[in-house]
Amino acid sequence: MLIGVVGKPSSGKSTFFSAATLVDVAIANYPFTTIEPNKGIGFVRIECIDKEFNVQCNPRTGYCKNHVRFVPVELIDVAGLVPGASEGKGRGNAFLSDLSRADVLIHVIDASGSTNETGEPVAAGSYDPVKDVEFLENEIGLWFLGIVEKNWVKISKQPSESKTKMLEAFSRALSGLSVKETQIEDALKKSGLLEKKSQQWTEENKKEFAFALREISKPIVIAANKIDIPTAEKNLQRLKEKFPGRHIIACSGFAELALKKAAKQGLIEYEPGSKTFTVIKELGEKQKQVLDAIQKIVLDKFGSTGIQDVLEKTVFEILKYIAVFPAGVHKLADSEGRVLPDVFLLPPNSTALDFAFRLHTTMGEGFIRAIDVKTKQAVGKEHLLKNRDAIEIIFKG
User: Fold this and answer.
1) Whose CA is closest to 96, among 55, 138, 143, 132?
2) Which has the closest alpha carbon to 188: 165, 166, 159, 173?
3) Does residue 88 lie within any of the structural domains?
4) For a surface tag, which of 89, 127, 257, 312 has the fewest beta carbons within 10 Å of its beta carbon?
């Protein structure tokens, strides 16, 4: 799973990324501070199963605190996109290509309305962030359309009588977008083109398909950033009214980054996603003012900085991933004595066989059966896994 972080320049995108991953990136209030994509690891929380087994886990990656497991997820932050990006403006094509492997996109917008469409500073509240949502979705849709048109000869050569061959042709031609055949089929259905021969498609048909494929294969979560600026709250309400049903989450990358840095310096105790923090070391006057303002303006009003909410809604509500623990009925520890060292995030409708292959090819190829460690029940390869399952794989190899 790869999460792409996108947005226009100076929207706070790089601050959001740094707050989510604690990776130091160039942060400045001018366009194209980021040129090469940044990669980092964020974390999503799940309730650890160690408590149910009356043990304390020892994660190999991530960490566990108070039986809450912080599971790593990979993020990529690309340079800010501007109107015309799909046509190459502002090196847009190169930046969009960096997102091709992403499974989902987090669109960081300046909810305060203090940057215009190209990322230049303007008076807070003078720019409408609704325009940012519309422009970015249009640009990414047009990027998809450009790739469809570039490969149209390959697609239209394939006879449409066989749906399987048609989907294979689409999949080969659009392999650069990292889309699945099932997503292509869903996009064809959504645009009403599944039964129409590709040779008969109009230009409008191509656009409808491209935009549907983008929506299905690279869904977007909107991170309404800079919520700590007074003008943002009114804009947040407008965004929710304009885009009902969308995942729009208020957040402050600045607040989260400040809290994490203070915690790293040993000044406070803070857990990502919390609604408060505890001061454990004497603060300077300026530090106290900043942290008090974060508590009052962000945490008290919104319940958290929102960064953790964005990540978790992206993984568990948009992608609908589940967390599955490899374990043994008679032994929860690995060969080095680490208890429940691993947990894997899997896409929805994953089976026991899918999990076996995720652990190791040999386990998948030699699959005999799986055991639900919680119930001690044996299950077959087609058994659908649930969130927080603990599974042992029995295999020959």
Assistant:
1) 143
2) 166
3) no
4) 89
